[in-house]
Amino acid sequence: RKVTQVIGTATILGLLLLTYALCAREHVLDDEEIHILYTVIFLGVGLLFTMVLPATCITSEKESRTWTLLLTTTVGDGEILAGKFLGAVRRCLPAWLLLFGHVIVFSLLGYIQPIVTAQLALLVLGIGFFLTAAGLFFSTCFRHTTTAVIVNLGLGAGLWGLLPLVLAVLQETTGRLKDPLQACVDMNP
């Protein structure tokens, strides 16, 4: 299993370095749009990991029938949830390290403003905490892992995709919903 992880990590980092080399060869690493694209892609990968992995913590134990055994131990409920939460954060961390690695490296090279790191940290901490907690909640509510993952993905898609889209369509068709759409865009990262 560890060999597979090392090979997978090496492959991903190799492909990433290849894209950086191609961008450097075309002299586009100083373009703002390239860094926005990388940031959006890495943010999307981090969001996907954070929506999926926490929603599998408890349901996988329910499916393997070890959840009731865990509940009968002397470990308290809060300790179990804290352990599951920290375990989910640890499992999601590599996806977020891609984002922060990109921003920090290119901040040091002078292509990205250094304040972006702090702004992204605030954004990622909020999103990460919310989606991890929601994933754990849905993992306790549902019996199957697939259901918990789909509901957590639906929550993220609804909050940051569907709601702004519906408000934008209503604003364009009626012309009266300028303030609610602006409030939704301001509140949603």
Give the structural class: mainly alpha
End-to-end separation in angstroms reads 36 Å
Biggest sheet statistics: none
Rg is: 20 Å
Question: Assembly type of the shown chains?
Answer: single chain
- In helices, the fraction of residues equals over 70%
Global outline: globular
Low-pLDDT segments, ≥5 res: none
Mean pLDDT: 88
In DSSP terms (H or I, runs of 4 or more residues), the helix count works out at: 8
How would you spell out the order of helices and strands? HHHHHHHH
How much strand? Answer: under 5%
Give the strand tally.
0
Report on this structure.
- The chain is mostly helical and 189 residues long.
- The protein is 83% helix and 0% strand.
- The protein is built from eight helices and no strands.
- It has helices at 2-25, 32-52, 57-63, 67-71, 77-108, 115-141, 145-174, 178-187.
- Helix 6 (115-141) crosses helix 7 (145-174) and helix 7 (145-174) packs antiparallel against helix 8 (178-187).
- 19% of the residues are buried.
- The model has no long low-confidence stretch (mean pLDDT 88).
